[in-house]
């Protein structure tokens, strides 16, 4: 059984603030260790279920967060950026399941560190006119490849968002939102035991993945800056909805790939911290 783990950071056990998840933050090093321990718990669960190969993609920010020297030694780590497919770099239809560890809810939702990819620079996103964020786009891309999203961990808002996309996703809330920068935290040992058990149970009865599909979808993004939207119109296939909103249509994996280019354009044009 081949398992792919996409690891974000905002939904990791114990983390609630930008200083926990951004390089240079006063608690970032502790956040890195916590992120690695959550991933290791998922790895233990996958091994209990019979996984023979596990690939972990460091999918947060600089994508150099996991402490490789304390990561489970028997996994392959995809680290660094840029990556063509970002949070799902290296995911192919050859994997039996996708696990999302440390995920967060989309922009505008009452969730811990909620945002969509770029903090305030992205105000809203829609996938086929349905509000979406990282969870929705990752889920759609995996489904198009025929890989089921089996487990997601994060705060309770992220877990609810995941099951709204697919009620068969097993979720583990490691904290409960009080505000965007505050949470009721599960004890570390309890949260990681729950991650391990949820993964082991979910993978013990493998889900039948969706059939790989070449069906297209439409991604719509509203930016804070009209300059970003205007510049993106120079990319073939990108059309304007209004001065700050653009859209494109393609298969979900191709949209994910193109969206990575959109974010690099936005980064070049703006200089806004993600959680201000």
TrEMBL record:
<dbReference type="InterPro" id="IPR027476">
    <property type="entry name" value="DppA_N"/>
</dbReference>
<dbReference type="InterPro" id="IPR007035">
    <property type="entry name" value="Peptidase_M55"/>
</dbReference>
<dbReference type="InterPro" id="IPR036177">
    <property type="entry name" value="Peptidase_M55_sf"/>
</dbReference>
<dbReference type="Pfam" id="PF04951">
    <property type="entry name" value="Peptidase_M55"/>
</dbReference>
<protein>
    <submittedName>
        <fullName>M55 family metallopeptidase</fullName>
    </submittedName>
</protein>
């Amino acid at each position: 059984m081949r398992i792919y783990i996409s690891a974000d950071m905002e939904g990791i056990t114990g983390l609630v603030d930008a200083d926990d998840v951004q390089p240079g933050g006063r608690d970032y090093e502790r956040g890195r260790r916590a992120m690695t321990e959550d991933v290791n718990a998922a790895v233990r669960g996958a091994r209990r279920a019979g996984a023979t190969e596990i690939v972990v993609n460091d999918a947060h920010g600089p994508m150099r967060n996991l402490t490789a020297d304390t990561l489970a030694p028997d996994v392959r780590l995809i680290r660094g950026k840029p990556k063509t497919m970002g949070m799902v770099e290296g995911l192919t239809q050859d994997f039996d399941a996708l696990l999302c560890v440390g995920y967060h809810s989309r922009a505008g939702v009452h969730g811990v560190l909620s945002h969509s990819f770029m903090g305030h620079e992205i105000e809203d996103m829609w996938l086929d006119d349905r509000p979406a964020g990282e969870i929705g786009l990752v889920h759609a891309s995996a489904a198009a490849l025929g890989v089921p999203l089996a487990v997601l961990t994060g705060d309770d808002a992220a877990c609810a968002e995941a099951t709204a996309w697919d009620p068969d996703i097993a979720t583990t809330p490691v904290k409960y939102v009080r505000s965007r920068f505050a949470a009721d935290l599960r004890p570390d040992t309890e949260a990681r035991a729950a991650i391990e058990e949820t993964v082991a149970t979910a993978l013990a009865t493998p889900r039948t993945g969706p059939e790989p599909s070449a069906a297209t979808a439409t991604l719509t993004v509203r930016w804070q800056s009209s300059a970003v939207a205007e510049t993106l119109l120079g990319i073939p296939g990108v059309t304007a909805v209004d001065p700050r909103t653009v859209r494109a249509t393609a298969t979900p994996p191709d949209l994910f790939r193109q969206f990575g280019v959109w974010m690099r354009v936005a980064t070049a044009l703006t200089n806004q911290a993600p959680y201000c």
